[in-house]
Amino acid sequence: METASHRQLTHQAFGRVRKFVAAYGALSAAVLVVDVVLSVTGREPTSFMWGRTAGVLASAVVAYWLTGRAARGSRSAFLRVRIISVVAPIAILAIDLIPGILPPWFIAMQVAAALALAPAAFIVNGSGLRAAFARAR
Q1: Would you state the pLDDT for residue 15?
Q2: DSSP labels for the chain?
Q3: How many angstroms separate the CA atoms of 91 and 111, rounded?
Q4: Closest to 103 (Cα-Cα) out of 28, 45, 52, 55
Q5: Cα(123)–Cα(118) distance, rounded to whole angstroms?
Q6: pLDDT in tens, 56-72
Q7: How would you class 92 by CB atoms within 10 Å of its CB: exposed for 0-12, middle for 13-18, buried for 19 or more?
Q8: Could you count the other beta carbons within 10 Å of the beta carbon of residue 24?
Q9: Cα 39 to Cα 133: distance, rounded to the nearest angstrom
């Protein structure tokens, strides 16, 4: 049985997660803005950079939407937020380690986005939220 205090802690935890996911989204959007500025000024970003920017930004939008659903009690959304919050930063960093594929400024902005999301992974994978979404036996 969930107590009022437990619900409050869950609500606070999702508030923190939402802030980290929003920061991830804001930094991802900033990369898109830089891509657009470069494109307008004649220094066309590569198609890989456009695709990467769009993919990371899309994952931020989906993660934010799922975080809201999870905060309202959706177990499936909670599980997906857990996965995205772990996999996205690892994938971003892994691709950034490929030498010569991306310019340093792009890598720095993508790493900043990944680092903004990483704390959310610790929160949603912590025992408190996992207990709140434990499967009934």
Answers
A1: 94
A2: ---HHHHHHHHHHHHHHHHHHHHHHHHHHHHHHHHHHHHHTT-PPPHHHHHHHHHHHHHHHHHHHHHHHHHTT-HHHHHHHHHHHHHHHHHHHHHHTSTTSS-HHHHHHHHHHHHHHHHHHHHHTSHHHHHHTPPP-
A3: 10
A4: 45
A5: 9
A6: 999 999 999 999 999 99
A7: buried
A8: 30
A9: 45
- State which amino acid sits at residue 10: T
The model carries a pTM of 0.89
CA angle 133, 135, 137 (to 5 degrees): 145
Q: 44 is written with which tokens?
A: 């066309």
Q: What tokens were used for 27?
A: 């930094």
Structure tokens given for 40: 């307008």
Domain map of the chain by residue range?
A: 4-132
- How many Å apart are CA 131 and CA 105, to the nearest integer? 40
